[in-house]
Amino acid sequence: MAFIQHNAKCPSCGKNHLSVNADGSSKCFYATCGTFHPAPQQESNVSNITQPAVERKVKPMQPKNSEGSYAALTDRRISEDTAKKYGVKVVHGADGKPIEHHYPYYNGHELAATKTRKVENKDFYLKGSFEETALFGEQLFNKGGKYITITEGECDAMAAYELMGSKWAAVSIKRGAAGAERDIKDSLEFLESFENIIICFDKDKSGTEAAKKVARLFQPSKAKIMTLPNGFKDANDMLVANKHKDFMEAWWSAKTYTPSGVINVSEEKKKFFNRPVKDSIPYPWEGLNKKLYGLRQGELVTLTGGTGLGKSSVTRELEHHLIKNTTDNVGVIALEEDWRRTIDGILSIEANARLYIDQEREKFSEEELDKFFDLLYDGDNKNRVWVHAHFGTNDIDEIFTKLRFMIIACGCKWVVVDHLHMLVSAVSEGDERRAIDNIMTRLRSIVEETGAGVVLVSHLRRANGDKGHENGIEVSLSHLRGSQSIAQLSDCVIALERNQQSDDINESNTTRVRVLKSRYTGDVGMATHLLYDRETGRLQEFEKESYEEEDADFSALEL
Q1: Is cis: bond before 479, omega within 30 of 0?
Q2: What is the CATH number of domain 138-261?
């Protein structure tokens, strides 16, 4: 049927979303309304709509009484007494079968609107307007009662009333789940006068969400959300099935609404003792394990330090450690180097030699290099290591797509991202702090969503004062470059310190490892010391006291 007018004013909700058909009928397409208005020949109170006169065909079956009469709603198993109490009338056809229900809505004790619902297809239309009306059934009950039940439909309110033995108040919202908040706000004073408010909305997604939104409108602890037994969508379903006892059990068991994030500890005992244990692996260095109790999946670890202070060396040790000491897939996104250099770096740890230096690499035969490769990347480790192979990419969304792909599609339980500020440079925003906030939030979300362990490399801002990070100054969280979100959203922050300018060859090759944050243990401070071995390219942990007694001859090398 063609529309002859659009965006007319709806007499029910007052919004300009009414479309008028050629036969004079109309429907409101506003989200919380949806009222169908029949042609003027069926409804005389439709106003504010200019419609042409249309000749209508006479239907063969006409109601005996278009106004209806008080009678049982047989199709809904609602008694005549309950229908009469709520003022609901039934229109019967010539064959005596019910064809319409008329539900009255009041402004105080004055009839202000009537909703007519077709029995056959459940379509409905409204005479009058909801704007000044109370909830369905509200006029029947005095303020200040002990219990009131709110349902999503008129028949559900009447059904609940009967299921409760006609003992306690039961009302219905007017506009369905989509308009629930609006309807409740209109009658908030009346509803708040009751000691207990039981919300019994439909057992579907829209009803469940609407129940939570409505519960938030009431004083804390007053609203309770009822969960119907499996197999029943609403109160009327339970009345039709004669489940009075089951309904009352669910009604009495309605739980006080609690906002998400607030839990009753006594109800969570089972979850508390049966919580999942995060998979973890010890760090390669015992000093860090004493502070952190290992590296855990589902956590975001940030490794930071000044330029040239050993971050890449530490990450390569970690990457090799994860490959050799777990059966998990491992991903590496190194944004400042070619993928071959990434593989070389990890392979150098396996070989105990700096294979990324050509002169060092030439010391090994092809057979030896092939053996190292197979030990690390083949055999039991085949298809376990994944690396980023697009050096210089500048699309932040593409990088995050690859990160998610590594975790979800490639099954990587651990991913190392080196480094944060290359990600920042890929963002066109001029505000570095805002860019870092955005990136850290996305990283945190991926960790929470996937449960993967992510190690993020981050730079430090330039230090103020006479000494910089190259002189080995102590690092603090305030030195993190760009944003507080790095510290806030990381589970752990590990800082590297080294005085690379020292004349003492041992000191210039010694990296101090300091824990700046540990959400898991809360234990922070100096964790360990790592000495760089020029011959092997490895970082060896040692006790500070033993180091002071050593007289090893290591040449300074910027890591």
Answers
A1: no
A2: 3.40.1360.10
DSSP 8-state class, residue 344: H
Residue with tokens 């490794």: 303
Matching residue, tokens 């244990």: 277
Q: Tell me the residue type at 520.
A: Y
Structural element, H or E, at residue 453: strand 453-459
Q: Is the dihedral of CA 50, 52, 53, 57 positive or negative?
A: negative
Residue tagged 């973890």 (tokens) = 280
pTM of the complete model: 0.57
Scanning the structure block, which residue is given the tokens 């009333």?
A: 161
Q: Where in the chain is the domain with CATH 3.40.50.300?
A: 280-549
Evaluate whether the domain defined by 280-549 bears CATH number 3.40.50.300: yes
12 residue type, one letter: S
Q: How far apart are CA 252 and CA 149, in angstroms?
A: 11
CB-CB neighbours of 476 under 10 Å: 13
- Judging by DSSP bridges, how do beta strands 329-334 and 255-256 pair with one another? unpaired
Candidates 203, 236, 348, 288; CA nearest to 492 is: 288
Q: What angle do CA 490, 292, 320 make, to 5 degrees?
A: 85
Pairwise CA distance, residues 510 & 533, whole Å = 10
- 381 conformational bin, left if phi > 0, alpha if psi -120 to 50, beta if neither: alpha
What contacts 405, CB < 8 A, 6 or more positions away? none
pLDDT in tens, 352-408: 998 888 898 899 999 999 999 998 888 888 899 999 887 666 678 888 899 999 999
DSSP-derived secondary structure for 406-424: HHHTS-EEEEEEE-HHHHH
Q: Which of 465 and 41 is assigned the larger pLDDT?
A: 465
